[in-house]
């Protein structure tokens, strides 16, 4: 098993703790802007996600958000990517699956995946992801050009 796989498996088994509150992360050239608001249970990720070592970035976010989900039992996610790499997609898919588990346990989950239009690579990425995953919570694919 690779160190990447070991890291991933250990991160899935990490205990979820209650977050301190809201989370704001400013964007860089290779990481997106992140805004999580605990009081209204919303997560917005917007921008570019191409950093080669993206796992620690998303681990922090998802750990924080899942802690808030344990408190609020509700989450609205909006993803608005300009560009995204394979590792980021893989980590998002795992997060979506974790949200599916929470949804089956009664959490109110909804996800919006935005793209510029139906010809943009982000649109096709989202379509492929949601074709592969069997999610019971609402997922909308929306185009910003509409």
Distance between the termini: 45 Å
Spatial extent as radius of gyration:
15 Å
Report the biggest beta sheet as strand number plus sense, adding barrel if it closes.
6 strands, mixed
Q: CATH top level?
A: Alpha Beta
Q: Give, in spatial order, the strands making up the sheet with the most strands.
A: 1-2-3-4-5-6
**Any idea what the shape is?**
globular
Mean pLDDT: 89
Strand content: 25-35%
Architecture overview:
- This protein has helices at residues 3-12, 55-72, 86-104, 121-132, and strands at residues 23-25, 33-37, 42-49, 74-84, 108-115, 139-143.
- It has 4 helices and 6 strands.
- It has one domain (3-143): Transcription Regulator spoIIAA.
- It is α/β, with parallel strands linked by helices and 146 residues long.
- The chain starts with a helix and ends with a strand.
- The model is unreliable at 1-19 (pLDDT under 50).
- The protein is globular, with a radius of gyration of 15 Å.
- Helix 2 packs parallel to helix 3.
């Amino acid at each position: 098993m690779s160190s990447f796989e070991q890291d991933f498996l250990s991160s899935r088994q990490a205990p979820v703790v209650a977050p301190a509150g809201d989370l704001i992360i400013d964007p860089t050239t290779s990481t997106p802007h992140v805004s999580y608001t605990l009081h209204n249970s919303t997560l917005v990720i917007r921008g570019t996600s191409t950093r080669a070592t993206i796992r620690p970035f998303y681990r922090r976010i998802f750990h924080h958000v899942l802690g808030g989900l344990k408190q609020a039992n509700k989450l609205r996610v909006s993803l608005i990517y300009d560009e995204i790499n394979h590792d980021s997609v893989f980590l998002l898919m795992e997060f979506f699956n974790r949200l599916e588990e929470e949804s089956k346990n009664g959490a109110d989950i909804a996800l919006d995946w935005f793209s510029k239009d139906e010809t943009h690579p982000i649109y096709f990425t989202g379509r492929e992801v949601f074709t592969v995953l069997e999610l019971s919570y609402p997922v909308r694919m929306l185009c910003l050009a509409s």
